[in-house]
Amino acid sequence: MNEIAERFAKHNIGSLFLYTHEAHPGEHYPHLTSMEQKFRHARDLRDVLKVSRPILVDALDGACHRTFGSMPNMTWIFNRAGMPIYKSDWTDSNSVANALDYFVDVAGRRKNEPLAPFNVERLDFRKQNSAAFFEGLERNGPKAVKEFEAAFGR
Q1: What total of structural domains would you count in the chain?
Q2: Is 119 helix (H, G, I), strand (E, B) or coil?
């Protein structure tokens, strides 16, 4: 996602990362009980995942996360008026780049022809990298791995 943010910056498109909470808390990254702890977790996430975009930290009660759907890995794109123009319940770089390419093209087309908005729903597909997912669980601690495996298996 860092590369996408850099690629679209020339179009005056900004990108933010909203840190909400650990989806699978464990001994190393337990359930959040203070904003100080939450900021520490967000800094660690920035360093581990090498996030170069600005990171906003949600309130301890997750107010922003709940407002935008409560899914663990969502992506939203808003236009300059603050209207959502893309919403995905899972972040996939190919899908996000495709949407941004489309909206950059629309901005160019709008200069030469009248355009009317319409809504679209589609099913996208993402790579499923189980090894990387379990690395993340292991980073959180053995409790996170054990609870996930008990619920969903390996």
Answers
A1: 1
A2: coil
